[in-house]
Specification:
By secondary structure, the protein is α+β, with helices and mostly antiparallel strands. It has 11 helices and 15 strands. The radius of gyration is 35 Å and the shape is elongated.
Length: 395
């Protein structure tokens, strides 16, 4: 704290200097040697006091910055250490990430910003994004990946195990005072890991310097679209090798078509009834666009088309009364391939590992006046009950 006596003394020195100078001006002369010596002593003392004040003020600001930085870390770091990512929604963290995206970590001199950002540092050099960023990304992702909205989606911070009832216990009629029938259900376990999806977007330096440019919104939308395309391919037909296991590989056999590249109305009806009744009420069809083209031409014995177009905005087309999802990640209606799936996709579980991570690449594209942004997210997915989804296999 600055001593007020020092400030008062400095004021007295300046006043005395003014008196000496004014007296000399009024007399039309310069300062005498004695007056000059006195003036120099007063000036030296006021300069000394000014320097003391500046140092004290600078130290005070430094102490304040450190206190705020410690406060930020004390609030956010414990959450991050426990795997709690709610710190992403704090104003300090969101502002810090925006500064990092535009200027890079090297340009962050304010310790409050630096410390807020460091809390979200990923072990691979990136930063987990705020929830608004992730919400925008998810909206763009779902716009591309239609399968996701029909599935069960969970968020997890680590490997996740899902108990699955593989054998249902049975009830029995029992005579009065007779022993109860003992029949236990059997359970299996489905393990969901975390496979890493990655991408890089390049942004020009001009856009980064434009304060009106919604940097986070732009990156979230573009990352979402890229991840959406990648995910749908895996969710539909992924083989489980460094990626999720898809719906088609995880489903159970339903019907084998008579043709290698054709499907009949009767075969679709057989597939519908191959699925257990409890799963039909929420079931959807899944097929490629080329397969949909074949099926749209099919009619029953009365000439009525099995395929009915959705007549209202937001309403999907239906086949035998159930919605149709068209995905070109589905195998084509070709020899030996599983071309149509029908089932309740809530039994396909997607586990999103919490926290999409973004890393700024400062030098990689510098020669072209661009900055790279590398993003990655972790996800796994599996069918948790194969009986809930059936497939039609071509001959």
């Amino acid at each position: 704290m600055i001593d007020n006596k020092l400030l008062a003394e400095r004021g007295q020195c300046i006043d005395a200097m003014r008196v000496l100078n004014t007296s000399a001006i009024e007399a039309g002369r310069d300062l005498t040697s004695e007056e000059q010596a006195q003036y120099d002593r007063l000036e030296a003392r006021q300069t000394e006091i000014a320097n003391i004040v500046k140092r004290a003020e600078k130290l005070g600001q430094m102490e304040s910055d450190v206190a705020q930085a410690v406060n930020v870390v004390s609030k956010l770091a414990p959450q991050a250490a426990k795997g709690d990512l709610s710190f992403r929604n704090s104003a300090e963290y969101k502002d810090a990430l925006d500064v990092m995206l535009r200027r890079g970590s090297a340009g962050i001199l304010d310790p409050r910003i630096h410390n807020a950002l460091q809390v979200g540092t990923n072990s691979e050099g990136g930063y987990v994004v705020p929830q608004e960023f992730e919400t925008t990304l998810l909206a763009a992702l779902q716009d591309i990946n239609e399968v996701r909205q029909w599935c069960s989606v969970i968020s997890t911070s680590s490997q996740h195990h899902i108990p699955v009832e593989s054998t249902l216990g049975a009830a029995a009629w029992t005579a009065e005072e007779a022993a109860f029938n003992e029949s236990d259900a059997a359970f299996n376990r489905v393990t969901l890991n975390d496979y890493k999806a990655t991408t890089i977007i390049k942004v020009s330096e001009e856009l980064l310097k434009d304060s009106m440019f919604d940097m986070q919104g732009y990156l979230a939308t573009n990352f979402g679209k890229r991840f959406g395309i990648l995910e749908e391919a895996a969710f539909v037909n992924g083989d489980g090798s460094s990626k999720p296991t898809g719906i088609v590989p995880g489903a159970s056999a339903g019907v084998t078509a008579a043709g290698a590249a054709a499907i009949t109305a009767a075969e679709l009806i057989d597939l519908y009834h191959a699925l257990g009744r409890p799963y039909r009420k929420n079931a959807v069809w899944l097929m490629a666009d080329a397969t949909a083209k074949l099926i749209r031409k099919l009619a029953d014995t009365t000439g009525q088309y099995l395929w009915q177009p959705g007549l209202q905005a937001g309403m999907p087309d239906t086949l035998l009364g159930r919605p149709v999802i068209v995905s070109n990640s589905m195998p084509a209606a070709t020899t030996g391939l599983k071309s149509v799936a029908f089932g309740d996709l809530s039994y396909y579980t997607i586990a999103d590992r919490q926290g999409v991570t973004v890393q700024r690449l400062n030098e990689l594209y510098a020669a072209t006046g661009q900055v790279g942004f590398r993003a990655f997210k972790r996800v796994d997915a599996k069918v948790t009950l194969s009986a809930a989804i059936k497939v039609l296999t071509q001959a």
